[in-house]
Amino acid sequence: MITAAISASVLFGGWAVYNQVAVAAPLEKVTKGIQGIVSSEKPVMDRNKVAISLELTPDANLRDIYETIAANGKDVVGDRKLELNIEEKSNKQLEDLWYASMFEVAEAMERKTYSHIPDAMNEAAKSMKDVTVTTEMDDTNVYITIKNNEAVKYIVLPRTPNQLEAW
């Protein structure tokens, strides 16, 4: 019984040390060197995804940050999904804008008509004072940044590739 307990302790302790030293530490180094990141927390990893919590500057470019972390952390992330959890101050105006445009954005994502997303966001922002919306896209995600004088809201929407159907 004692041998089993010691073996389990060594096994799980070794796994924890390996996970911290060989996996999490390199990702923490990657996030520390990226312009636009104020702070980051230790990555949380499982079989399917790597989640990193970040605090960004108001002028941060979300697409550049995502691509830099994905490229520089490719050895650690591997084929797992990279997920950025962005900490932000709550702002009613930005939340209202996001919820007002969510239907059109969801429809554009579902139909894969991504060019409709900037139009939907800008249309919703017209009625709000001092609000700017930036939308960008890459091969894996659509990035939306909503700003006003007080806060910034960052949204990352994962794209799904077209699936070929069997005839």
Q: Could you provide a short overview of the structure?
A:
This protein has helices at residues 2-32, 62-72, 74-77, 92-111, 116-125, and strands spanning 37-40, 44-45, 49-56, 81-87, 132-137, 141-147, 152-158. The protein is an alpha+beta fold.
Key features of this structure:
167 residues, alpha+beta, four-stranded mixed β-sheet
Helices and strands, with pairings:
Layout (H helix, E strand, L loop, with lengths): L1 H31 L4 E4 L3 E2 L3 E8 L5 H11 L1 H4 L3 E7 L4 H20 L4 H10 L6 E6 L3 E7 L4 E7 L9
Parallel strand pairs: 3-4
Antiparallel strand pairs: 1-3, 2-3, 5-6, 6-7
Helix pairs in contact: 4-5
Task: Let me know the number of strands.
Answer: 7
**SSE string, helices as H and strands as E:** HEEEHHEHHEEE
SS-based class: alpha+beta
> What is the average of the pLDDT values?
84
Strand % is: 15-25%
Give the biggest sheet: 4 strands, mixed
What is the overall shape?
A: elongated
Radius of gyration, CA atoms, in whole angstroms: 20 Å
Low-confidence stretches: none
Distance between the termini: 59 Å
The count of helical stretches stands at: 5
Helix content: 40-55%
Descriptive notes:
There is one protein chain. Helix 4 (92-111) packs antiparallel against helix 5 (116-125). The chain starts with a helix and ends in a 9-residue tail after the last strand. The mean pLDDT is 84. The chain is built from five helices and seven strands. Strands 1, 2, 3 and 4 form a four-stranded mixed sheet that branches. A three-stranded antiparallel sheet has the order 5-6-7, covered by helices on one side. 23% of the residues are buried. It is of the alpha+beta class.
